[in-house]
Specification:
Oligomer: single chain
Number of strands: 7
Strand content: 5-15%
CATH architecture: 3-Layer(aba) Sandwich
Number of domains: 1
Helix content: 40-55%
Mean pLDDT: 91
CATH class: Alpha Beta
Largest sheet: 7 strands, parallel
Length: 259
């Protein structure tokens, strides 16, 4: 690899964008910690990374549990020596409207998508500031730009996460630590793909009614991971504050479609 070795922590690394991001950093020679509730899946990914000559450590992380977050942060530092890049990919989405979502369920969504991320930043970023170098990459969603109905707790928490990131950018200016937002559009991950048809169909119908589904294209997790790596590997003096990644529409009129 070219450039310095930078120890990386990735949350939500049991599948989807988080897993792809951990693999992408490891492929470049960076040691990675993979954190998620489904730690057995992180173990399998870590074994694959190590089989290819990389360094990977799987650790349990439940963003709903303050003790789990604090333990994960401490164990990450112990495993890596220090953390130079924190990528917050963990997220959860509840297909439910504002009036139908219980306060408890709404709070749980905000805890995973926003409050847990803030606690992890609080635990790991101060050491970056002391070293005068580091990257915090927060993966949000294009629901911040295009709010969708029937997922109000997810929309609210991702709006809050971008607000956190914007404030953090100003607070970290001049410290050598960059806070960045990667905002993906529709992506083929496990999140939402396991909804029952009787849940998914009315959600998609509402999105179409509001003009929020323009085509059938989806991003791959690897495409979003590539954006995350690009943000975090920019040379000193360059700060990509916000990168939105959207799926390209299927190309119309390909010969294969006309036959």
């Amino acid at each position: 690899m070219t450039g310095p070795v930078r120890p990386v922590v990735v949350t939500g690394a049991s599948s989807g964008i988080g897993e792809a991001t951990a693999r992408a950093f490891a492929a470049l020679g960076h040691p990675v910690v993979l954190g998620a509730r489904r730690v057995e899946r992180c173990r399998a990914t870590a074994e694959g990374i190590r089989a290819e000559g990389g360094r990977a450590v799987p650790l349990a992380l439940d963003l709903r549990d303050a003790d789990s977050i604090d333990r994960f942060a401490a164990d990450s530092v112990s495993a890596l020596g220090h953390v130079d890049v924190l990528v917050s990919c963990a997220g959860d989405v509840l297909p439910s409207g504002t009036l139908a979502t219980s306060p408890g369920d709404f709070t749980a969504q905000v805890q995973v998508n926003l409050l847990g991320a803030q606690r992890l930043v609080h635990a790991l970023a101060p050491a970056m500031v002391e070293r005068r170098t580091g990257d915090v990459v927060l993966v949000t969603s294009d629901v911040v730009r295009l709010p969708r109905p029937l997922m109000s707790s997810y929309v609210s928490s991702k709006w809050g996460l971008e607000g956190l990131a914007r404030a953090l950018q100003m607070e970290l200016e001049g410290t050598g630590v960059r806070a960045s937002i990667v905002r993906p559009g529709p992506t083929l991950t496990g999140m939402g793909m396991d909804w029952d048809p009787e849940v998914l169909t009315p959600v998609l119908d509402e999105w179409r009614r509001w003009g929020l589904v323009r085509h059938d294209g989806y991003l791959s997790p690897e495409a979003v991971a590539n954006a995350v790596v690009t943000v975090a590997t920019q040379p000193s003096g360059t700060h990509l504050t916000l990168v939105e990644v959207e799926p390209e529409a299927p190309v119309r009129g390909r010969p294969s479609e006309a036959t």
